User: Fold this.
Amino acid sequence: AQSVTQLGSHVSVSEGALVLLRCNYSSSVPPYLFWYVQYPNQGLQLLLKYTSAATLVKGINGFEAEFKKSETSFHLTKPSAHMSDAAEYFCAVSKGNFNKFYFGSGTKLNVKP
Amino acid sequence: DTAVSQTPKYLVTQMGNDKSIKCEQNLGHDTMYWYKQDSKKFLKIMFSYNNKELIINETVPNRFSPKSPDKAHLNLHINSLELGDSAVYFCASSQDRTGKTGELFFGEGSRLTVL
Assistant:
């Protein structure tokens, strides 16, 4: 079985500050890992993905995530938050022959001016 | 041009009614999905079709019936609607079924409210 845990349903940072959104997964074998972003009243968009290549993955809008097998983590970071980063962020895991994604419960990022 | 489009965007209906949500993708993808997002933003897969063939069918009440007339369309029909069906339903598509390319392309969602 696979699951994804996102610590913190709400994260608030000041503009220009570091963004850190946490994601831990449970899987018996290395999974494929993803971060998606959802802006208000929109569908989810892919930010970045880990598919067993480089452990540090760079995505769009300056976001990156590091796969740490020893910690079963895939935390999302951005060095400097921008107001436009305010959105809901979802970590997801997939394994196997089908695109059966398991999403975390989401973390709402608030960026203060 | 919208890649994955769903209609209607909003749907308000009474308990016991039957309703449908339509989805179309113009990306040429082989695989399409329906996800349900509840009021706590929890997103859960319901169904997946690959080239009109059902490949994922999660534990969903049989009041929910997906239909894929062709690989560009995946519709969701819901019979005898219940209060707990209120949610945002997202259609999505992907290039393949393996999970390796990983990217799902989502529609904007259809917010269903059952009164």
In short: Chain B has a mean pLDDT of 90. The radius of gyration of chain B is 13 Å.
